Amino acid sequence: MGRTLFDKIWESHVISERDNGTALLFIDRHLVHDATAQAFDQLKSEGQKVRRPDLTFGMADHYIATHDDPDRDPVHDAMVTTLAENAREQGITSFGANDERQGIVHVAGPELGLTLPGTLLVCGDSHTSTHGALGALAFGIGASEVAHVLATQTLWQQRPKTMRIRIDGELGVHVTAKDLILTIIRTIGANGGAGYVIEYAGEAIDNLSMESRLTLCNMSIEAGARGGMIAPDETTFAYLKGKPFAPQGELFERAVEAWRGLKSDDDAHHDKEVAIDARSIAPTVTWGNSPETALPITGHIPDLGDIETSKMEQYQATIEYMGLEPGAKLTSLKVDRVFIGSCTNSRLEDLREAAKIAKLGRAKVPTIVVPGSQQVRQQAEKEGLHEIFHQAGFEWREPGCSMCVAMNGDSVPSGARCASTSNRNFAGRQGPGSRTHLMSPAMAAAAAITGHLTDVRELEGTKC
Ligand SMILES: CC(C)[C@H](C(=O)O)[C@@H](O)C(=O)O
Ligand code: SF4
Fold first, then answer.
1. Of ligand 2's atoms, which has the minimum distance to the CA of residue 342?
2. How far is the C-alpha of 225 from the C-alpha of 212, rounded, in Å?
3. Which of 109, 208, 280, 404 is the most exposed place for a label (fewest CB within 10 A)?
4. Which ligand gives the minimal distance to the CA of 428?
5. Strand blocks (E) in 278-387
């Protein structure tokens, strides 16, 4: 029987297997960020050194400042400095403050060519699934696993099952990878991917740009999946060509020949198959505290009568926390803040989409745009996107995780409603008491200039 893309990568990394089905895997790339200090402490307390500093790369992102903030907590700077010190001590290449390669680990990694097809990549961060967009097997690991990889460059893992999600048909105007993944999560549930690695396939996936594929795979974890991946193709090869850490010249051509074999065989078996028609998807927003509360922007907050008895308690808690009126139109929800950024949606393509909408008006509420990396920032500035944002009253910041998780102090005030391009909307995610609605960059920019959740297609007169 044929093998899936996942099988091919998994099997080429197995060093040893136990009878209980767990395998010891070789790790090709280990990315560490500034919230990984605990793992380095564990390593040191055990008297160990990093086994393969040449395969380990550091990135300052969670705690890094995105603007001059007189109230900045010195502890946040200390986290950034600690990563730099650990990297220096262990001989690891690390991209910290003031490095032009710095960025959110899941934005800067692929853009530097650190993520390559067929490789096994891990990072102590749940959104490591992002890197699967390049045809890598990539997943997040816990702090003690980070310490294990630092010490051995290997990891014990239970073999996950595979799920293939096929998206056929064409996506409509202003329907993006973000709308696609939110719809997938609504369809299979926030726990629907538990125990699986998802392979995305089909016409709509083939047609996605590399940046959109990164957005899609990024949120696989929000469906509970171990990872998400897409077979590498011409889009992937064109994206990787010339990236500083990718193979160069003749070696690149040889690598591409090998990468062409990285796809599921026609007779390969996936443990679960799901199919969604791209034409059925509209610009989408979440209303609650789980990404599965995603709905087309044309919809309403569910009414009491729509809720199953077993979910009633949770529904009522959500309505109260989010300050919602059951049955209200989604577009009636006024926002207090807008955040355009995060490893889901802070790449150049995202900022271009947001800028197109920003041109149509001026921000009615405080809006920040946080590029995902220094490279994205530089390129956006070269194109004049920052000027467009300035003119629209959007604040242009330095790269980092920022308001996605509020670990660096960029937070949404308690009780405030935020239109956000990030990936998590649970209670308190963007700061204690914050209320988050997830959406695409164009939809977030539309909310900024109207002051409420908005169907970007109507704003632009493109609704079909
Ligand atoms: C801080 C880090 C470990 C965390 C994660 O694992 O995802 C963060 O990136 C997040 O998005 O919540
Ligand atoms: S941008 Fe948000 S989701 Fe991504 S790594 Fe940073 S905190 Fe996690």
1. 1
2. 19
3. 280
4. 1
5. 284-286, 294-296, 337-340, 367-369
The alpha carbon of 317 and the centre of ligand 1 are apart by a number of angstroms equal to 24
**Reported ipTM:** 0.99
Q: Is 254 exposed, middle or buried (0-12, 13-18, 19+ CB in 10 A)?
A: exposed
Give percent of the chain with pLDDT exceeding 70: 99
Residue 464 marked in a binding site: no
Q: What distance in angstroms lies between residue 7's CA and the mean position of ligand 1's atoms?
A: 27
| End-to-end Cα, the chain, rounded Å | 44
pLDDT exceeds 60 at position 162: yes
Closest ligand 2 atom to Cα of 346: 1
pLDDT tens, residue by residue, 282-313: 999 999 999 999 999 999 999 999 999 999 99
Our answer on whether the CB atom of 62 is closer than 6 Å to any ligand 1 atom is yes
343 is in an annotated binding site: yes
Distance CA 293, CA 437 (A): 10
SS3 404: helix
Phi-psi region of 414 (alpha: psi -120 to 50; beta: other; left: phi over 0): beta
Q: What integer pLDDT is reported at residue 89 of this predicted model? A: 97
Report how far ligand 2's centroid is from the alpha carbon of 6 (Å). 25
Mutate to test the pocket of ligand 2, among 33, 126, 401 (most ligand atoms within 8 A of CB): 401
In this prediction, residue 460 carries a pLDDT of 74
Query: To test the ligand 1 pocket, which listed residue (127, 343, 429) has its Cβ within 8 A of the most ligand atoms?
Result: 127
405 lines ligand 1 (CB under 6 A): yes
CA of 399 to the centre of ligand 2 (A): 12
- Is the Cβ–Cβ distance between 119 and 232 less than 8 Å? no
As a whole number of Å, the CA-based R_g of the chain is 21
SS3 396: strand
Identity of the residue numbered 152: T
Read out DSSP for 73-140? -HHHHHHHHHHHHHHHHHT-EEE-TT-TT-B-HHHHHHHHT-S-TT-EEEESSGGGGGGGGGT-EEEE
Q: From residue 248, how far is each of 76, 191, 245, 252, 342 by CA, in Å?
A: 37, 40, 8, 5, 30
Element counts in the chain: helices (H) and strands (E): 16, 19
Q: Point out the ligand nearest to the CA of residue 423.
A: 2
Query: Which pLDDT score, from 0 to 100, does residue 1 have?
Result: 86
For ligand 1, the distance from its centroid to the CA atom of residue 366, given in whole angstroms, is 25
* Partner residues linked to 166 by β-bridges: 201, 275
Query: Residue range 108-119: average pLDDT?
Result: 98
